[in-house]
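Review box. Two proteins, two foldings.
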Amino acid sequence: MKRLTLALLTLLVLGVTASAVLAQQPAAPPGAAAPAAPASPAPPASKIDRGDTAWMLSATALVLLMTAPGLALFYGGMVRQKNALATLMQSFIIMAIISIQWVLWGYSLAFGPDKGGIIGGLEWIGLRGVGAEPFDAYSKTIPHTVFMLFQLMFAIITPALITGAFAERKKFSAFLLFTVLWATFVYDPLAHWVWGDGGWLKRLGALDFAGGTVVHISSGMSALVCALVLGRRRGYGHQPMQPHNLPMTVMGAGLLWFGWFGFNAGSALEANGLAASAFLATNTGASAAALGWMFTEWATRGKPTVLGAASGAVAGLVAITPASGYVGPLSAMVIGAVAGALCYTACNLKSRFGYDDSLDVVGVHGVGGTWGALATGLFASKAINEGGADGLFFGNPGQLWTQLVAVVATIVLAVVLTWVILKVVDAIVGLRVSDEDEVAGLDLSQHSETAYALGGGQYGEFSSATGPFADAMRAAEAKPRPVH
């Protein structure tokens, strides 16, 4: 823990120090020469549109809601009771830690002045030069600060998605260090590749309206690496590990669906017809996927499940994300229906392959995001978005190839760097909790709390207490019990 604290403090101190030093220097636009003497006063900020700004602030709040409470409840209900608080905590604290990382250096790396199409420069470290005026390369009608805040919410939810793969067994200290490193070395460069001004995939013509590659493929493939490196949960395949609170999960799925309108429609960056089209495609894709998953499960298992319907809706939201600003409602319906059946099948394959992706991040986000990115190359139409491109079904087969390149590049970056980061974190603080801590549950072992103490029993009374007697009571509760 001391090594983690030192590592995190070092990162934060370096970031704050560099930001403070650079903040003392006058900001200049990217690529500009040395500042000249001021001439006439700058014109008023007449380009800012109040309606667009209001919509984007609302969309930003909607995307934040997706992480907590949306994803927190969705994941929190699917774990066992003894890990509920720890799972909620991961989604909640990511909002804080990535918000600081984004301000200090993350935004500059992701969207700052281009360095060879690979990464943004550090000219905007500490948000130096990111102010109230629009930055035309990204949006002409909203303040640069608003664009930065909107993109922050994507940076927050992406590493939060990965937590579902290592749920119930990763140290909290390892989780914190992993999050900072992964955001810096995987998310930020990838965001620059796809969305940054000058990014190489953007120049190549890859289409990703709201995060199919940047958010979902990156998190899904990184989740697979995490599941393989950390190994399976203790008792996996031999002990029951059912969700402890499905109503919580369904509420989380509903909040995700609600917030996703900001995620996709907000990516139009204006309150216009394209935002409305993306809104419609989002709702249609989610609906079709919920039905696709439900009917596939019904046909193969004999009964439709509530968890399946909720998971199907999320799979549809994932799949429609990259295409939402480029396809009409009928194309969105096909993308969603295929996503529901495809992701259901993918989630059931993990038992065959033997890896423990606790909450199906790989099957939903990895597979769903890949299908959505490729489907964009099939169904995209310039009739929907003149700034996009036609896909294969509209006379442009080359777009499907471009989408495939983007998918492969994303997978390679995410897989390789996630493996490296996990090895670094393991060397510094270790990745997994001990067997005893895992049996006791992460709520107690990592946070000295329990999610539920309604009965006032021993576990509830002593979960937050300190001292030898309380420690003895917790140890007694932590002893493994036979499974019948």
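Next protein.
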Amino acid sequence: MINDTIKILVVDDEEGILDVTEGYFQRKGYEVYTAGNGVEALEILNRVKIGCIFTDINMPIMDGLELAERVRQIESTLPVVVMTGYPSLENSIQTLKNGVVDYLIKPVNLEQMELTLKRILRERELFVENLILKEEVERQERLRELNTELVDKIEEVNTLNRVMEDFSSTDSSYGIFNKVVDLGVEELKADKVFFHIYSEEEASLVLVAKSSSDYENEDIAKRFGKDISDRAKAYILDSLKSDENPFLMSKSGEKNHLDEPVNSFMVVPLKIREKVFGIASAFIFQDGRAFSEKDIYYMNFITQKAASAIENIALYENIYENLFSTLFAFVTALEVRDLYTRKHSTRVAQYSQMIAAEMGCTEEELAVINFAGSLHDIGKIGIRDDILLKPGRLTDEEYEKIKEHPVIGAEIISKMGLWDREMKIIRHHHERYDGRGYPDGLKGDQIPKLSRILSVADCYDAMASDRSYREKMEKSIVLDIIRENSGTQFDPEVVDAFLRISDQELPDDF
């Protein structure tokens, strides 16, 4: 067959894929037909003698597997190649039953697709020439080969998916380092795996994770654990500059430089923006076992995904810190305007944490309320100075303006797009337990629990601090007021927790 006589049929419900594939193969001299589903494909097969079919699996009306079965019944020698973005063992087995000759995983490289086509057409020619004598034998052999290839491909895809899922669920740098080590043991079946931070400037390595069960955090500060000698360290560094493997036993059986004979060894750099950040090293000590090319491929993939995860975490932490610093700068600017409320937000955050801890809140809730407490009055930056700093009693109109600050603060936090819970806590920290608060008149359990805690802490500090319109109140009087308003302004459970800790030394001065 030559290109200008070969007719191929591409079946896919995505027009973009059809257009790109049709254009590519037409430029290569093939005659291309396209269909959006299996029914349209069968109509074309009734009119045109097709040489090869490429089909997606998931399509409306008639999917790729049913199409392949229909084609096999009509013309058993017509090759069908399945393309899918969601490989699974079940689909793979089903394609074998339907006589599919190959299996490509999307996104499909067009050059690879053409190579597959040429290979399949050559195989078909031989197959047709020897059909009478060899049909059953070749068919069974091809199915066995295809089955092996498909199982290998699916195993590889599943391994890569597991690696990606593992790193996507890891939220710390040291968690990533340990994940590299764990995956090295699980996927490569290595006897021992290490991960070191690499300093190009000092030409040195620092051990941060290893597969040994006795690994402890203090090892992070040490240069190499007891498991690796200084000579091994030198060889690992040399491996960065050479493809040679200095750890393998020589053909004569000479002992290498390690105390424990190493049958196979690999070292793979973890690069961030083309610079070596760390080194993953893996060892096999057992005779008769050695790392394969696929193992090296897997370890390279693991370090690549680890590098991406480290970059993402660093980027997120940098963005988080910058936003947090900016917001605190706003609070500082606000408190500078008012001498009497200076460090009010810091005290409220600490009071809130003490109450929350007494109520048995989780570590996450303690962190959330610390953030919300520190920024609960950030909305006052939108209130005019003549109202905010007024020494005397506010008018009704001025008080309504002051009451806008929780909403303003929540809107500022919402623009950051990171702290939904904190935004709600700030918005509702002036709600009352009896429903007569603001801005939304929530009552009881409608008010977020951490807002109810923040409300008590905020009111305590406001009464126990000097203000422009009055001096601070005695602590005993403040506690009586909070106790008297339990069940009306304040959540009784929060008040009880606050009173239990009220004898503790509170951070009054900062």
